[in-house]
């Protein structure tokens, strides 16, 4: 099968690769927002994860160490946001922006000696038997471990939020922090943990870009993906399975436009490059118009909690 | 143990003291960062904050640069502060800045090689309009469909960046530029240039516009009904609704003004200091202006000082890069840290921090 120089099987397989960073980051941010916190620093945490993961994997020679370092780096940076918003009671919107500014600067600062360095290659982990299914096998089951991990994470986040006590507490804190506090739940502790989780997931997403998708380090490597991840949480109405759909939709647009660029389509390259962002705006408009704003959004999203 | 008691009104004293304290704390933290990098922290801080103004060799060049860099920052931050006050988060000033520059430059270049007095004023109007229209996208989507303005205005930055690339590579490219990307050099075309008005000061039309914006914003906030409505909406959107504030109109006004001012900043930059439309024309003013707005406490006079200070970090950062080999990204970290420290210290503005012994705690 071949359409205008684009093989749909390869296209769909690379769609999964392109979507994984967005999926990881958006899933993490969804958990943060479920706890009632709006962290706009996803882009900063992603790029910090990207650089930490890259450095650690180059220095250690192991991509696994890289991903662990990326999660740690993202979570550590997120703790700055937690400190600001949960301890110092700062407004969440500017705090998140500050986090992005610091993260982007820090990443470019840490990575300056790593431009042009090659990272160790990540091996694919084809799943035996399943990979031999015609068409579906190459699309779904011949990826690296992180792709499977991201899908697994969707299931885990969905199940934990829906069925466990921890998930219930997290949602309660996000829906009504005063009531949750009155019931004796530690609102701040829950939120700090959620923020840390969001940071770790964003970090993993960033490292997926610098270690697998691109694999190299350049300044500004995340190029706005963190912001798209934020938009996807809105698109998904704060539901994990829909985060998956959203991430794959946008990964799909990204891959498609890249393929069209490579195939020399008669559309200006700049128009193709801006298409994921335009699509995000269109989708945001459709979602907001249909649901009259942030339907399904946690009631306490962005509000400051005051313990009395 | 520490107890926080919410103040009925934000503390006036702390409102003024925190920016100064935040700068001091950031200097200490920045010094630590530079020490970690193996640089002499005192020398680094002096190079960034003192040398651009007082070094016998560099000050002559960098002092005028202070106004050149502060102009766009102040102009953009004044616009942003109106929205921020009302709880309208325009994060896309960078895109509005680019679109202003593009619209203005395109208007001028369409008339090339005409030479008439009205070309520059026409470009100024086109620049403001470009930024205004770009900001109207998130504004209208917000008022019509309740779409999140933070995300939309930000997405539009990336769209504007692609338009900028396409302009410098194709439709605004200099036909006599030997195939290099970038437009004609506007600062070299008399009818389209924004020259230094007083030799050796760095003052150009953009700086004049920035000062005018400071005064206009001061009057608007303190003397005009609209300014009162902005403040009221920021404090309580419900109360503002009861008081008959039309929130849709306020959103359009705040985003529109911010967009127009950012567009003006872009136009003055492209016709003056930058000189031409090029791929890397945008220098992050739109994002740094967010810091300027907060550091200036969303107050016009405060923004004036904050703009000058952030301009100083830009110039000092370049100097430190050149003199001490400090990476340029370290200045970005520094600026981000400044915003973080300031936000952290807001706790003193909004709360009274009281030490109580455990026994007495209610």
Give a structural overview:
The complex is a heterodimer of chains A (308) and B (362). Chain A has 308 residues and is mainly α. Chain A has a domain at 20-119 and 142-236. Helices cover 70% and strands 0% of the residues of chain A. Chain A has 12 helices and no strands. Chain A has helices at 8-34, 42-60, 63-87, 92-110, 136-140, 145-163, 165-175, 177-182, 187-213, 225-235, 240-262, 269-291. In chain A, helix 1 (8-34) runs antiparallel to helix 9 (187-213) and helix 10 (225-235) crosses helix 11 (240-262). The N and C termini of chain A lie far apart (65 Å). Chain B has helices spanning 12-36, 41-49, 51-54, 59-86, 93-110, 119-145, 149-171, 205-223, 225-235, 237-242, 247-271, 285-295, 300-324, 329-350; strands at residues 2-6, 351-355. The longest helix of chain B is centred in the first third of the chain and has 28 residues, at 59-86. The model of chain B has no long low-confidence stretch (mean pLDDT 90). The N and C termini of chain B lie close together (12 Å). Chain B has a domain at 70-310. In chain B, helix 2 (41-49) packs across helix 13 (300-324). Chain B has a two-stranded antiparallel ribbon. Chain B has 362 residues and is mainly α. The interface between A and B is large, with 50 and 48 residues. Chain A: One of its GO terms (molecular function) is transmembrane transporter activity. Chain A: It comes from Celeribacter marinus. Chain A: It is found in: Cell membrane. Chain A: Keywords: Cell membrane, Membrane, Transmembrane, Transmembrane helix. Chain A: This is Putative deoxyribose-specific ABC transporter, permease protein.
